[in-house]
Specification:
419 residues; Beta Polymerase, domain 2; single chain; Rossmann fold; 3 domains; six-stranded parallel beta sheet; four-stranded antiparallel beta sheet
């Protein structure tokens, strides 16, 4: 039963198409059930994010044309257009791909951890829809174990590779734990949102977000248990901040030396870590001249980011080595399934022979034959029945020179090979 992946991602398709192929969370269960009802599909799961939409399937055949046609019809996209951006992975490549996706090796930001949670959501949605079976369900579980192994044994997610991540990483180097610190974020764009998320994940004590549009500041801060203020309120709250990260589109300086000096006096010169990510700069350069102020610009963070990228690239090599081994392990399990049906048939045939001989042996006991005589009959007859077909076929194989079959029999029955 072939394993197949169908998908598009940030590498193969523009955002305009990716947006059209997204499966909305509230419609995912229905989509899964409809896909599972297609003739060639046995099992199905869908991973749908802003950067990728992928379908993981087990099917009766390798041809996924019916699934591709269904995707086109569901999203009202011309199938020919869809095929231009779609990738299809067969069994071993599907296993490898799922391992790489879960560990962030296929992400826009190498090693990003959010994708693993999204894949776990995909797994839970498929369970809820009843579209997972033993093969795909086991592959998901193996995928999660591989991701955990790589996160534990490599540095794939430990080094900063984004400006927001680098800023928070520097803050941790200065303060250690952040649970006793207050962070003031200035702006409400994507970088500030990422910084807020990283600070929240590192259990920062308090979070304040200042923005020109105070409603946006309140909305963003509310996601992370903080509170929002207007830009004009910064001088009042600046003395509370141990960490300041600023990224606005303002053409004017937000923090000048006078404002920061006043805040330091109220703080009794307790140190402040500041990161100015904005271009043009939000924080006046001469603020960095103040004692107890540690001011970093976006250029200062570049070296941190480059080093983080280098570290993650090295970790990615280690991760791929782990994946190579784990792909073979899972393929071995799939191949072992091919033997299950044969083993069941062998056992069933043996049990049938046993039952036939046992009936005859019981009849002989009823006819008055001794237990010893009946047991001898039972042992001899059952042995002959079980070995008749293998013996006949092995003699025939030897006559035709099929020595590989003889060697296989020696291995299966654990026989010594006489030279």
């Amino acid at each position: 039963m072939p394993l197949i992946t169908l998908g598009i991602n940030h590498k193969t398709a523009p955002v305009e198409l990716r947006e059209r192929v997204v499966f909305a969370p509230d419609k995912l269960t229905d989509a899964l059930k409809k896909l599972a009802a297609l003739n060639p599909v046995n099992e199905i799961a869908i991973l749908s994010t802003c950067n990728r939409t992928e379908l993981y399937c087990t099917m009766e055949e390798q041809d996924a044309g019916a699934v591709i046609d269904w995707i086109g019809q569901y999203h009202k996209i011309d199938t020919r257009e869809l095929r231009n951006y779609l990738y299809t992975y067969p069994e071993d490549e599907t296993i490898r791909h799922m391992f790489k996706v879960a560990t962030g090796l296929d992400s826009l930001i190498l090693g990003e951890p959010q994708i693993l949670g999204q894949m776990k959501d995909s797994y839970q949605q498929a369970i809820k829809a009843g579209t997972l079976g033993s093969t795909l369900g086991r592959l998901f579980q193996h995928t999660f174990n591989v991701a955990k192994q790589i996160r534990t044994n490599t540095a794939i997610g430990s080094s900063p590779v984004s400006v927001a991540y680098a800023a928070v990483s520097l803050a941790k180097q200065i303060f250690g734990e952040l649970k006793n610190q207050t962070a003031l974020l200035i702006g409400a764009g994507e970088t500030i949102e990422l910084a807020a998320r990283h600070l929240f994940n590192n259990q920062v004590g308090r979070l304040i977000i200042a923005n020109r549009t105070v409603e946006r500041a309140h909305d963003l801060a509310g996601q992370f248990g903080g509170y929002g203020i207007a830009l004009g309120e910064i001088p009042v709250h600046l003395s509370e901040a141990d960490i300041v990260i600023s990224s606005t589109a303002s053409q004017q300086t937000i923090l000048d030396k006078r404002i920061v000096t006043d805040a330091l006096k109220r703080r009794k010169h307790k140190p402040v870590f500041m990161v100015d990510i904005a271009v043009p700069r939000d924080i006046a350069p001469d603020v960095g001249e103040l004692e107890d102020i540690y001011l970093y610009s976006i250029d200062d963070l570049s070296d941190v980011i480059r080093e983080g990228q280098r570290t993650r690239q090295e970790a990615a090599k280690q991760a791929n080595e782990i994946i190579d081994v784990q792909v073979q392990h899972f393929l071995g399990w799939i191949q072992s399934l091919n033997a299950v049906e044969t083993i069941c048939e062998i056992r069933s045939k043996a049990e049938q022979s046993r039952d036939e001989v046992l009936v005859k042996a019981q009849r002989q006991l009823q006819q008055g034959k001794s237990a010893e005589e009946v047991l001898q009959y039972l042992a001899n007859t059952l042995t002959n029945k079980l070995l008749h077909d293998p013996s006949t076929n092995l003699r025939d194989a030897a006559t035709r020179g099929r020595m590989e079959l003889l060697r296989a029999a020696q291995e299966i029955f654990n026989l010594s090979q006489k030279k």
